[in-house]
Design goal:
With 249 residues, the chain is mainly beta. The chain has helices at residues 2-19, 218-228; strands at residues 22-23, 26-27, 29-36, 39-49, 52-55, 64-71, 77-82, 90-95, 98-106, 133-139, 154-165, 172-177, 189-191, 197-205, 208-213. It folds into 2 domains: 26-118 and 217-228, Trypsin-like serine proteases (Thrombin, subunit H, Beta Barrel); 129-216, Beta Barrel (Thrombin, subunit H). It has a 7-stranded antiparallel sheet, covered by helices on one side. It has a 6-stranded antiparallel barrel with strand order 10-11-12-15-14-13. A two-stranded antiparallel sheet has the order 1-2.
């Protein structure tokens, strides 16, 4: 029995090391501190472009006016971004009337390559086969309320059991047995053993942890990343999108 336990621990350790999703000196993880007229919201996110953060839609308050992104070595760096209504710098995903708990946020300046911040690749469209089994969730380390601690990260193994309907929103989720995250972890990335982002943490439903399945939305993430890029046309891709909040086009 002891040998089996040791073997299981070694397997989990090997999977955790394979993707190297986080170190104190180099990470794609971004901590987001949103502020709005009726309060604030703390979430996680991942750097998927030089100035683009992928997070959960419910993290972005409808009345948000600014956000602080903590990044880099030991999360000592920060960039302030104000809401831009004239040229929207965020998008909440809602495709063909199906609300998906995903969002993109454009920061006020690029941070990739600065003080250890790096981008993470997103899984290819419909490449869902590799998203079952033990994955790595980047989560914050402790409950801190409105205060962001100096150490903001924890890495856990989430045993993804299946692909199915989201128990928390609409759309498709990767589902793991057990509660992996805590309050403030929403928007945190889920990585494959190869270091590719396959999910975004949406929350817990009973004894199940749900991650938006990026294999179903990778094409949309790419399309919206292009829209939000400096040379983007600001023309939403075809479909019924929330752009940027509740105003449909």
């Amino acid at each position: 029995m002891n040998k089996l336990i040791v073997a299981a621990c070694l397997l989990a350790s090997a999977q955790l090391t394979a993707a190297a999703p986080f170190s104190p000196t180099e990470t794609h993880y971004v901590k987001l501190d949103f502020r709005g007229s009726s309060g604030g919201n703390i979430c996680g996110g991942s750097l998927v472009g030089p100035d683009l953060v992928l997070t959960a839609s419910h993290c972005i308050l409808d009345n948000w006016n600014s956000v602080t992104a903590h990044y880099g070595r030991h999360f000592a760096q920060r960039v302030e971004t104000a809401r831009n209504n004239a040229k929207p710098n965020w998008i909440k995903f809602d495709h063909n009337g199906v609300a998906v708990d995903l969002a993109l946020l454009k920061l006020s300046r690029p941070i990739a390559g600065l003080d250890g911040a790096r981008t993470v690749p997103v899984v290819a469209q419909e490449d869902c086969n590799g998203a079952i089994g033990a994955m790595q969730a980047n989560l914050r380390m402790a409950e801190t309320g409105g205060q962001l601690a100096a150490s903001l990260m924890d890495v856990r193994v989430a045993n993804i059991q299946r692909l199915g309907p989201s128990p928390l929103a609409n759309g498709v989720s990767l589902l793991a047995n057990g509660t992996v995250g805590r309050g403030g972890d929403s928007g945190s990335p889920l990585l494959s053993p190869k270091g590719v982002q396959v999910g975004v943490y949406n929350g817990n439903a009973g004894n199940v942890s749900a991650y938006a399945a990026l294999c179903k939305y990778a094409g949309s993430i790419k399309a919206w990343s292009d829209v939000l890029s400096p040379s983007g046309s600001q023309t939403p891709p075809p479909g019924d999108w929330v752009w940027p909040d509740a105003a449909r086009r």
